[in-house]
């Protein structure tokens, strides 16, 4: 799915988000049942009810989980954030700067892990809070040189697939310092497997890779079928290895929706 939200553009939460995609209209975490995404809201008033959200210098976002009183638990919306990759859900972050005002789209994020830290709850009492480190997807797109490395030759396709499936499992508890490294490692595991699965041919047009890299590997690119940009871990059933031409077509072609739907079905058949 290609989300209709533009980076840093403001939207009316009820009319532009929930009326179209569903999900809870109150609270900081909205989990619509029939949309491939989780809506996260932060901003105005958050600090007054015990939440201490903040953008970090490296671009990541520290997001306090769900629960206003007492210790937080890894249930409901918190669990949805933790398991979003495994469940095929994007994380969409919106920020509200004025009470009752519109929310600004801050982009797509990936959960890099979480910490348990002490914060006051709504009554000012100390409690154990779940604080997620969310990493922006737009900072995770792989450079061509990285893509050109290809899959490691010392692992079988079955081993690469197992590693990729494990990478889609929810993030472990970790510090913000290593969250970005975790996300990159998980992303690479999925990409390595997908490139090996293609066996040198584009999974869209089925043509051979346009050239070999300096290491002798067929050059193909990892395409995240559901996403506007390619970055961050995903499930192997929603990532394809495609030639550069099909990759651009999947993002910018007038038939991009049809192509991505066809590609999604083809990849799911491969994974079955």
Keywords:
272 residues, alpha+beta, PUA domain-like, 2 domains, eight-stranded mixed β-sheet, two-stranded antiparallel sheet, 7 helices, 10 strands, 29% helix, globular, HNH_nuc, HNH endonuclease
Your description of this structure?
The structure is a single chain. By secondary structure, this protein is α+β, with helices and mostly antiparallel strands. It has two domains: 10-137, Roll (PUA domain-like), CATH 2.30.280.10; 149-271, no CATH class. It has seven helices and ten strands. The strands form two sheets. Strands 1, 2, 3, 4, 5, 6, 7 and 8 form an eight-stranded mixed β-sheet that branches. Strands 9-10 form a two-stranded antiparallel sheet. Strand 2 and strand 3 (37-43) form a beta hairpin. Helix 4 (157-167) packs antiparallel against helix 5 and helix 6 packs across helix 7. The two termini are 21 Å apart.
Distance, first to last CA = 21 Å
**CATH fold-level assignment of the largest domain:** PUA domain-like
Overall pLDDT score: 84
Which sequence of SSEs, written as H and E, runs from N to C? EHEEEEHEEEHHHEEHH
Q: How much strand content do the residues show?
A: 15-25%
The percent of residues in helical segments reads 25-40%
Number of strands: 10
Count of discrete structural domains: 2
Classify the secondary structure makeup into a structural class. Answer: alpha+beta
Full CATH superfamily name of the largest domain: SRA-YDG
Second CATH tier, the architecture of the largest domain? Roll
CA-atom Rg in angstroms: 19 Å
Number of helices: 7
CATH class of the largest domain: Mainly Beta
Report the uncertain regions: 142-152
Assembly status = single chain
Q: Main β-sheet, in a few words?
A: 8 strands, mixed
Shape: globular
GO molecular function: endonuclease activity
Domain HNH nuclease: 189-248
Protein name: HNH endonuclease
Keywords: Endonuclease, Hydrolase, Nuclease
């Amino acid at each position: 799915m290609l989300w209709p939200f533009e980076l840093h553009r403001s939207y009316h939460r009820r009319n532009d988000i929930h009326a179209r995609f569903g999900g809870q209209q109150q609270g900081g975490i909205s989990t619509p049942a029939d949309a491939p995404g989780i809506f996260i809201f932060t901003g105005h008033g958050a600090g007054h009810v015990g939440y201490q959200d903040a953008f970090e210098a490296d671009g990541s976002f520290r997001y306090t989980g769900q629960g206003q009183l007492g210790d937080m638990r890894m249930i409901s919306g918190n669990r949805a954030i933790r398991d979003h990759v495994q469940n095929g859900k994007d994380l969409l972050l919106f920020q509200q700067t004025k009470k009752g005002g519109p929310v600004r789209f801050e982009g797509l994020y990936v959960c890099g892990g979480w910490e348990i830290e002490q914060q006051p709850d709504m009554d000012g009492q100390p409690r154990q809070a779940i604080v997620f480190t969310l990493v922006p997807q737009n900072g995770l797109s792989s450079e061509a040189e990285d893509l050109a490395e290809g899959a490691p030759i010392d692992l079988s396709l079955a081993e690469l697939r197992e590693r990729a499936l494990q990478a889609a499992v929810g993030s472990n508890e970790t510090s913000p310092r290593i969250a970005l490294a975790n996300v990159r490692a998980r992303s690479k595991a999925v990409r390595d497997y997908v490139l090996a699965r293609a066996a040198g041919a584009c999974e869209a047009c089925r043509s051979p890779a346009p050239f070999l890299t300096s290491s002798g590997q067929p050059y193909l690119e990892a395409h995240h079928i559901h996403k506007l940009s390619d970055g961050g871990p995903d499930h192997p059933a929603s990532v394809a290895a495609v030639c550069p031409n099909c990759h651009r077509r999947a993002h910018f072609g007038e038939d991009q929706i049809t192509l991505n739907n066809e590609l999604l079905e083809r990849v799911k058949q491969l994974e079955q």
